Each structure stands twice: as C-alpha cells, then as structure tokens.
Amino acid sequence: MRNIPTYFILNCLLFTVSYALGQVSSTKILVIYSYDATFHIYQKSEKALYDVFPQSDNIIDIEFLDSKRYPNRQLNTSTYERIRIKQKEHRNYDIVIACNDNAFEFCLEHQATLFPEIPIVFWGVNDLEKAFEQDQNEWVTGIAENISLEKTLPLIQKLHPGRNNLQVITDSTTTAIADLKVFEKTISLFPNLNYEILNVSNYTREEYRRKIQQIPSNQIIFLLASYRLKDDYLSFDQIAKMLSTNSNSPIYYAYDIGDGGGYIAGTAISYYEQMYSACLIAKQILSGTTLQSIRVRSDVSSNSIIDYNLVKKFHLNPELIPESAIVLNDPNRKIEISKPEFYEISSIVAGVFVVLSLAIFFINLKRKKEKRYRVFAENYLNIFNENHSMMLLIDTKSQVIKNANKAAAKFYGYSQPQLKGLHFSELCQLPQIDLDAFFTQSEKQNSHFEQKHLLKNGQLKDVEIHSGKINIDKSIYIYAIVHDISKRIKAEQELIDAKRRAEESDRLKSSFLANMSHEIRTPMNSILGFSSLLEVDDIELSTRKEYIRHINNSGEHLLTLINDIIDLSKIEANQLKIYKTNCKINFLMDDLQIMIKRQLERAGKDVQMKLSKGIKNNSFNIKTDEVRLKQILINLLSNAIKFTESGDIEFGYKYREDSVLQFFVKDSGIGIHPDKQKDIFSAFKQVEEYSSRTYGGNGLGLSITKSLVEKLGGHIWVMSEPGQGSRFYFTIPAENNQLEL
Ligand code: ADP
User: Fold this and answer.
1) Which residues line ligand 1 (CB under 6 A)?
2) CB-based contacts of 389: which residues, under 8 Å, 6+ apart?
3) Which letter does DSSP use for residue 396 in this model?
4) What's the mean pLDDT in 36-51?
C-alpha cells in the first residue's frame, strides 16, 4: 500500500509528460513479441503498453514471431518483410520494443537493415549475457529477465532439507537455452542439489509422457520449459497438465506458476510490470534521454510464488515458506498479485470502498435523521393531538383553520375534520379589522388575547388565547392555545356583584342604624315629654287623657319597632325559630277580621272589609307556626289600612291543587310604583327612604314578612299599579292530614 502514492504520482507524471510531448505528432511504435497473441505473456503485458502509450496518441504496430510454435524462425522472414514494407510505405518507427528472447534476437539480427538509428528497448530476455552486452550497443537497451533461480533453488533446498535430485525439464527454445545456461551456473552454488536434464524437444508427446511417468516420486522436478516437443507444441496450460497428471513428484517452475496448475512454486514475474518498465524507458528515450545513459538492468522485482495446497500435499513444512513469498491458497495469507495490478485494484477498491462507505454513511445518517424526525414529528403530533389544552393551527393568509386537536373539537362541538376547514371568524366573531389585528399581532410576537368564541350549539364562551407564529413547510401559521375562561369570568362577575352587594349592604346598614336611632328617639321623646307634662297638678282631665293617649301610642310604636328590630336581627343571624302547631285557619282569619275592623274604626277610615275563606269547614287546619302566620297577615293588613284612605280591603285564602294555601291581601289604596316594587321587601332599602316617607312606618315590615313566609316554606309577591291599589300574595304549604273539604 505504501507504493500506491508512488504509482499515482508516476501516472500523473507520465500523463503530464505525454501531454507536453505527445500532442505534437503521433509516435510510431513497433512492438515485437516472440510468441503469439494467445500466449499468456502477451495477454498480461499488452495493457501496460497502452497504459504508457495510449492508442489515441500513438501509432502502434504489433508483430508476433510465434517462435514457440514455429521454433525454426519460419515466420521471421515474413515478419521482416512486413516491417520493411510498413516502414517503406510510411515513415520509420520512432522506437521498437522487443519482448522476450526471440524478438530481442530478431531485432539485433536486423538492426542494421530494418532499424538503423532506431532505439530498441527489450524486456523478458533470459539470455542475461547477451542482454548486458547491449550496454555497448548505441541503440539498444532494456531489461533482462531475472528468473530468480537464486530464489527458487534455495526455496527447494529449504522445503526439502537433505540431499535432493532434481529432474530438470527443458526444451530447445531460445529462452530455455538461455535459462539453462543460467541454471547451470546457479546450481553450482547448491552442493546438496544434483540434477539430470531432460530436453523434451528430443521426444514425442508420447515418449515425453512416459519419461515423466518414470520419474521417481522422491525426485524433484524443476521445469525450465517444455513448449517444444519433437512432434508437437504444448501450450502453457498443457505443460502444467502433462506434468501434474503423469508424475507424483513435487514440481517447481522457473517462472510464474499462474494460478497453480500443479506447481509447488515458481517465480512471480509480472509481465505487466516488465512491459510497463520497458515502455517507460521507451518514453524516456522519445522525450530526449540518450540511450547511453540508460543501462541494461535486471532489477524488475520478482518473488517466489508458492501453492500452499501442494506444500501440504507433499507434507512439506509450511513454516519454512519465506516471509516474502507470495502464497496461493494460503488459509492465513492473502494471494498477492503484481504491484501495478495490486495498486490499480487497490486504488479502485479503496476508491469504491471510500465512495460506498461515504454513501452508506450519508444514507444511514439521512435515514437516522429521517427516523429521528419521524419520531419527533409523531411525538409532537401526539402532544398536539392529545393535549388537554385546546389547540388550533391557523393559516395566516387565508385565516382558515388547518389543524385542530381533540380537545378543541370537543370544546367547539365540531368534529376534527369539520374544524379543519372553518374560517377563524366562524369561531371568533370579531369585526374583520380586529381579526386582522389578531393575526398581525400574533405574527409579530407571542401574544395573549381574551375573546368570545361561538360554539357549534350557538353558545358564546369567554376564552383566553395564547398565540404566536410558527413556520411549517415554508408557510406561516398562527398557533392558538385556547382556554375556556367563562367559569372564571362568571366567578369574577359574581365576586364583583357580591362585593357591590356587600358594600351596598354595609352602606344600607349604616344608614339603617342612623335611621333606627332616630326612629327610637322620636317615640321616646314623646313619652318623656308627655310624662313630664303629667307632673303638673292642675291639668284638665281631658288634656291629661290626651297626654296619656300620646304616651300609649308612642309606647306601642316603640314596642312594635323594638319587636321588629329583634325579629330582623334574629332573621339576619338566622336565629328565628318556627314552632309549628295545628292551626285552624278560619278561626285565625275571623280573629284578624275583628282586629282589622277595630283598627279601621279607630283610624276612622271609610273602608269596606271583606274576608274570603277558601275552605268553609272551620275545623280545617294546617300544621304551621300560627303566631308567625298571624304576624305576616297583620303586617300586610296594616299596610293595606295605612295606604288606603277609602274603598275596600279584602283578604283571605284559597286552597291550591298543589297542596299549597295561597293567601292574599288586596286593597284599593295608593298602589306601588313598578320601580319600587322590587325594593319593598328589602329592609335596609326601605329604611333608607324613611325620611321621605309620608305614611309613617319603619320600612321593616315587608322585609320581616318575606323572611317569615320563607321560613314557613312559601314565598311572597306583589302585584300593584300606582293609584289602582295593591294585591299581596303569599303561599305556605298545607301540611294538613285532617283536611275535610
Ligand atoms: P312601612 O313600615 O314603611 O310600611 P313596610 O315594609 O311594611 O314598611 O312597607 C314598605 C313600603 O311598601 C311602604 O313604605 C310602602 O311604600 C309600600 N307599601 C307596602 N304596602 C303597601 C300597600 N298596601 N299599598 C301601597 N304601598 C304599600
């Protein structure tokens, strides 16, 4: 991975150089391969050629000598001719790249005639001697292929400790001859390794098969090459198959073992890497670097490549596998691939990984956000919907309700969907100008209003509204939290009324006390005054009687007043007691009639008296407080006498079907003004007006009468018109079990 940036930088540099140089005129490049287009070396290296020299900017010709299948250079002549014609018809090549030994030899052989002063760059040349000799050649340089026997042979020695016999398999191809030379030099460094050579070019396919079968299993096969048989040509895959199916020996290969195929180990040579390096040299030359400054080298890295499965199969110790080796099928290690491929794949994988990770990260982030928002939204919707406070969401522009919660629907008496379409003015019946002000104010800041809202059933309710602005989906809404304050307002109003009443009562009581003291003082003064006059001895008898009558009247008046005050204070303190007995109503009425008649006579009034008994039977009785009932009737009758100068006074009772006795006292007197009628039963009100009274009286009578009627379980009312007389009515329950109608 450390090399990835280097690889990228290299590519970038290459691109820059290409851009600077390559655009002027197309470079004409000839690539000569020793083998054919189906051979794995071509397939693995072709990409490197186009990576360095893109087809769009360069004219590239590729020739194949096909020397594996035509080992006697049968195709060389025609190749020569083709190149010659191509150069004759068009201009010469700018550079030649020779791949592997045969192509390298072809170029050297025809350098003078075909490639005069044309730079030749080679790679994959196994004849190291010849390769390095090219440092003397003015127009040739390149990379020798180090098959790293220095790596494979020590590996064999390591994995197979002890003395071992190697069966070296080779053929007569140029590369194999070159490799054998290297092998023979190298093997001398390993005294524990003996070897025999089997040149397969001397045998037919059949003979070769038998030869392999005869190799003892304790012998190690070391394969240099076996492409060319006496009668046949084997492809790369066929070689592997032939060896692995016919022998039981461990097989090592001088070259890249591909993806296994039966070889325990070999040398990982990257044809891509070699071609790539050669192309870079070619590029350097094309951009002006002299050939002499580029020395032939064999520094293309190569590692041992080992098939772990076969190490196990041949019971070799896996721990002896060198750290640097590329291990195929290793359960613990990863398969290594050529650096450029690795870098390329790594960068693509890393890129894809980064992009995918980022994409997944952002998608997850988005999903999480969306989920969070969804949960939030649901929560808030629940809070909105289930809240006990009534909530409305109103569109500011149209003033139409867009959402309303359950509490609001219940309060207004509409269903939620019905509320949703209503114009706000259908609830809040303010003039449009005030409605607009409500929206403007709420939009500006959180606000508080008190309004009257109309419910579906037509009821008007006092409500308090907390409102404010809220943005949803780029639209502006007003939220309104509505509280029903009608009970509060009513309670407040009652409190105000009660306060007013209390103040009024306070004022009236003060006024009452002031008046009462005056009321008491008047008869007292009269009593005291006339009593002192009586002290004089020589008063005439008639005058004396007159004084005594005044004293008596004032005394009676005082007594009535005191009784009334006592009754009133008892009523105020809720201390008035009712004592119910059987009361024969008709007898009571008769007594009253006698008493009233006497009063009328005394007053000297021209008034007719009439009594109506609802029930004729005199034994008719009810259970009630007779004394209080009599007091009520005396009060009413006294008033009737007082306010009637002439005419009639009628009183009596009737029995109602609802078991109630309804009494009445009618007179043809002065009557009562309607405005005054409501006040005559209020003690303190009456007393206040005492000073302006012309008929006398303390103004307590009707108030006490009303309280007594109510104490007896009934109620009292008056019907009167000024100048037309008055009719007082009151009821008491007829609690009678001995009624004989
Ligand atoms: P008062 O001692 O002043 O009569 P009441 O409580 O008995 O006190 O009556 C209150 C007031 O009601 C009277 O002052 C009078 O103005 C009016 N009133 C009562 N009875 C009659 C009636 N029969 N006809 C006309 N006015 C009446």
Assistant:
1) 639-640, 643, 667, 669-672, 680, 686, 693, 697-703, 726
2) 407, 481, 482, 483
3) T
4) 89
53-62, 400-409, 688-697 — most confident range: 400-409
Enumerate residues 6+ apart whose C-beta is below 8 A from 686: 679, 680, 698, 699, 700, 702, 703
pLDDT of amino acid 694: 60
Per-residue confidence band for 301, with pLDDT thresholds at 50, 70 and 90: low
CATH class, range 577-738? alpha beta
pTM above 0.90, yes or no: no
Classified by CATH at the fold level, domain 146-269+301-331 comes out as Rossmann fold (3.40.50)
Q: Answer yes or no: are the C-beta atoms of 165 and 198 closer than 8 Å.
A: no
146-269+301-331 matches 490-557 in fold: no
As a whole number, the mean pLDDT across the chain is 86
* CA 234 and chain centroid, separation: 70
Residue 68: helix, strand or coil by DSSP?
Answer: coil
Is the pLDDT at 333 greater than 60? The verdict is no
What is the residue with the minimal CA distance to atom 11 of ligand 1? 680
The Å distance, Cα 699 to ligand 1 centre, comes to 7
What is the amino acid identity at position 338? Answer: S
Classify domain 490-557 at the CATH topology level: Helix Hairpins (1.10.287)
- Please name the residue ranges forming H helices in 448-485: none
Quick one: DSSP state of residue 193?
Answer: E
What is the pLDDT at residue 5? 45
Cα–Cα distance measured from residue 568 to residue 579, given in angstroms and rounded to the nearest whole number: 17
